[in-house]
Specification:
32% of the residues are buried. By secondary structure, this protein is mainly alpha-helical. The protein is built from eight helices and no strands.
Length: 201
């Protein structure tokens, strides 16, 4: 919902470290993979109730997600980089609820399952729209540098980061917070279905 408004600030913050990494020969794909690998460590951290460590690893993953795009803009974006970035992002999002389910199966498993289903809805509607938009040669002014058509919604990247931060800071509230965010994700999914229905009719 607010990603487009935050984009100029994000670019300004990421540009200096991206230039430094690019100057040292670091490629965007390397940052993408490294960020994903570090983010995966949040899963065992959550399972063992190391919530502050998990939050730090999640934030590192999200910083890497911003850095890889900034490096790609410096060195030149590639289709492979865009594919890798979005594929690993959606998997990472779905794995965080698994960590909470492992931490307390009796309390968290149902809410984690509902949340993962909601993430499937937002991810599939996002990618389905992007694939048809690419076929039709469509583009968006809100996200001109994205590797694929970036369809917004109620729950975008910024909202997901805030949600992940909240459940790490207040893990006992995971079931209710997860259900609330899942409901917001379902709203996003339905609005994207409607946008696709209208745009491709």
């Amino acid at each position: 919902m607010i990603d487009a408004a935050l984009l100029p600030l994000q670019r300004a913050m990421m540009q200096p470290p991206a230039e430094a990494l690019a100057a040292r020969g670091i490629r965007a794909d390397q940052v993408t993979v490294a960020g994903f690998a570090l983010g995966l460590l949040a899963i065992p951290a959550l399972a063992f109730h190391a919530y502050w460590l998990a939050l730090a690893l999640i934030l590192i993953n999200r910083i890497a997600d911003g850095l890889d795009g900034a490096i790609a803009r410096i060195k030149g974006p590639t289709d492979r980089g865009a594919f890798l970035d979005i594929a690993l992002d959606f998997l990472f999002y779905a794995l965080i609820p698994v960590g909470f389910a492992l931490a307390d199966p009796a309390r968290n498993a149902l809410a984690a399952t509902i949340l993962i289903a909601a993430f499937v809805g937002t991810g599939s509607s996002f990618l389905a729209f992007a694939s048809i938009a690419a076929k039709r040669g469509m583009s968006t002014d809100a996200y001109p540098t994205k590797g694929i058509y970036y369809l917004g919604g109620l729950t975008e990247g910024a909202e997901t980061i805030l949600f992940f931060s909240a459940i790490c800071l207040f893990p006992q509230a995971f079931p209710i917070l997860a259900d609330l965010f899942a409901a917001a994700c379902f709203v996003t999914t339905v609005t994207r279905w409607l946008m696709g229905w209208r745009a491709f009719s």
